[in-house]
Write a structure and sequence with these properties.
There is one protein chain. The protein is α/β, with parallel strands linked by helices. It has eleven helices and ten strands.
């Protein structure tokens, strides 16, 4: 496993496992357990994924030392703001059944996220979170947050895949010392990505799958990446990406795939409205 060092000195696995869209607790626990067996040590969840309890159970049952597992969760718009974020953090901590969270993120840049950031800074200083960061922040919102607060985000988790390569975002985040983490590395299967005419020959040349090539492409750009799969074999294949290297020509060929395709465009009125209306189904 390769690690990145965040701007506060904390080390984070560069390859992790995402649990988005796996709300069934029994299924989530089983899948996370298999991911941990396969070698994953970064698990990415969120309050809106409705599976924090299952993630926590899988971690405890694995018997892997807690210090070896890097756990990320996120605060949703419903809980944005200073006091609400403190309560939401404790709820996530209780559901996970952990003593601390490795990385706590603002899920989307809507609502009073400045109030949330102040709460997160306090929780970080109190030692309850090892690193704090943001998710889905555009370059302007990220820089504005940095310039108006004491602690800068350690992570910005954004959509990155071959069809949306986020080159400007990578430059700006690097300039300000923020580690980029990419979600949806396979574009959620859109655009026939696994049968792409550029990716398939590269995969064949390296005797790897297209998915492995995509993950390696992100790793070589120093991006933290969190693929998701419920299939154990694919889960293991996705983890097996540290024994080959893409050439400069390979990387250039993949760069031509940029189309600007977005799974979610957070800069639209419709997304702002729908996300603000989305509520967590708490028991």
């Amino acid at each position: 496993m390769k690690y990145v060092t965040l701007n506060n000195g904390v080390k984070m696995p560069q390859l992790g496992f995402g649990v988005y869209q796996i709300p069934d607790l029994a299924e989530s626990e089983k899948i996370v357990s298999e991911a941990l067996k396969a070698g994953y040590r970064l698990i990415d969840t969120a309050s809106t994924y409705l599976n924090e309890e299952a993630v926590g159970r899988a971690i405890r049952k694995s018997k892997i030392p807690r210090a070896e597992i890097f756990v990320t969760t996120k605060v949703w718009i419903e809980d944005i703001g200073y006091e609400a974020t403190k309560k939401a953090f404790q709820t996530s901590l209780d559901k996970l059944g952990l003593d601390y969270i490795d990385l706590f993120l603002i899920h989307v840049p809507f609502g009073d996220y400045y109030g949330s950031w102040r709460a997160m800074e306090e929780l970080y200083k109190a030692g309850k979170i090892r690193a704090i960061g943001v998710s889905n922040f555009s370059e302007d919102r990220l820089v504005d947050l940095i310039l108006n607060n004491e602690i800068k985000p350690a992570i910005n988790q954004i959509e990155i895949h071959p069809f949306r390569q986020q080159r400007r975002a990578l430059e700006v985040n690097k300039e300000y010392g923020v580690q980029v983490e990419g979600w949806a590395p396979f574009a959620e299967g859109n655009c026939n990505i696994f049968h792409n005419e550029i990716l398939m020959p590269i995969a064949e040349k390296h005797q790897k799958t297209v998915a492995q090539v995509i993950l390696r492409w992100q790793i070589q750009q120093e991006i933290v990446v969190i693929p998701k799969s419920a299939d154990v074999q694919r889960m293991q294949e996705n983890f097996d990406v540290f024994d080959f290297e893409l050439s400069e020509e390979d990387m250039t060929q993949i760069s031509y795939l940029e189309t600007g395709f977005k799974i979610i465009n957070h800069l639209t009125v419709d997304i702002a409205k729908s996300f603000n209306e989305m509520k967590i189904l708490r028991a």
